[in-house]
Amino acid sequence: MASDAIPDRSDSGRDWRVWFGLASTLFWLWLGLLYIAVVVGWDEFLSQPAESMGGFLEGAFAPLAFLWLVIGFFLQQRELRENNRAIQAQYEQMRRTAENSEIQAIAIRANALHQQQETTLLVADRVQKQLGAVVGLLWMSSQLAGDSPEAPSAEFVSELWAKLGAGDPEGFARQFMALYYRNAADPEALHDLFFGTEIRARHSNTITSVFERLLAKIRECDPDGVIEAATRGSAHGMLYRMIQESRAPDPEPGTATA
Question: How far is the C-alpha of 130 from the C-alpha of 164, rounded, in Å?
């Protein structure tokens, strides 16, 4: 801004104090020469001994010395003020530069966080597809075991796998939600649904491990917890909670087991 510019007096000529000093010096010298010529006389002045002439010149030039001392003092004050203004302007420039650097650093961090979130979302999408396949195997193990008349038809199973291949990785997880609430009053049936056989337990533990690692990855780039909340609220997130709630409680220390 124009108001922050330092006034440059180098192009406006010398300071008026210098001109005043030069004019006063010339006027004082003219008066001294006039005094010698009219009052003392040049012959009388030149015939004075060195001591008298030195005393005369010392008294004549003392006012000029004092005048230039005062002028130099004011000139130095002006230079100091200009230097202070220059330092202040440099400080303001450095402060603005620091503020701009901080803004750029914040933008860089935000951009890096955004890129990390995009990468994490891509990873989460692939993990969700992987979970969809494991959940499908768990669902088939729990629903197609034996010759139950309530077992789903082959066409229904094929339709769920087709949806998984078409980009819907949570179809089997939604089926588990219906089964979970159907058996909510029977803890043993819920436990059997996820841990009734070795195969089901292995699939359930795989789902739990993969989902927990996905949550840990999301927390690295989700300071507000929005992505984690959305992931926990998905069908796979609800299935993860169902599996955790259906686990058998660990025996208390000192309790004998059969």
Answer: 10
In terms of domains, do 60 and 115 share one? no
147 lies in the same domain as 90: no
How far is Cα 245 from Cα 250, in angstroms, rounded to an integer? 12
pTM, rounded to two decimals: 0.59
- Model confidence over 190-249: pLDDT tens digits? 899 899 899 999 999 999 999 999 999 999 998 889 999 999 999 999 999 999 988 865
| Angle in degrees, CA 136, 140, 146, rounded to 5 | 175
Q: What is the pLDDT of residue 195?
A: 92
Does residue 130 share a domain with residue 82? Answer: no
Contact 67, 29 (CB under 8 A): no
Mapped onto helix, strand or coil, the DSSP state of residue 67 is helix
Q: Give 226's contacts (C-beta < 8 A, 6+ positions apart).
A: none
Domain count, the chain: 2
Token code pair at residue 115: 């890129």
The DSSP H or E segment spanning 88 is helix 50-143
Could you identify the residue written with the tokens 């990785």? 169
Largest alpha-carbon pair distance within the chain? 148
When mean pLDDT is compared across 1-10, 81-90, 149-158, the lowest value belongs to: 1-10
First to last CA, the chain: 86
Asked if residue 254 is part of any domain, the answer here is: no
Q: How far is CA 91 from CA 5, 160, 168, in A?
A: 13, 68, 59
User: Which of 76, 104, 132 is at the close of a domain?
Assistant: 104
In the numeric block, the tokens 């202070």 are attached to 84
User: For 22, what's the count of Cα atoms within 13 Å in the CB-facing half-sphere?
Assistant: 5
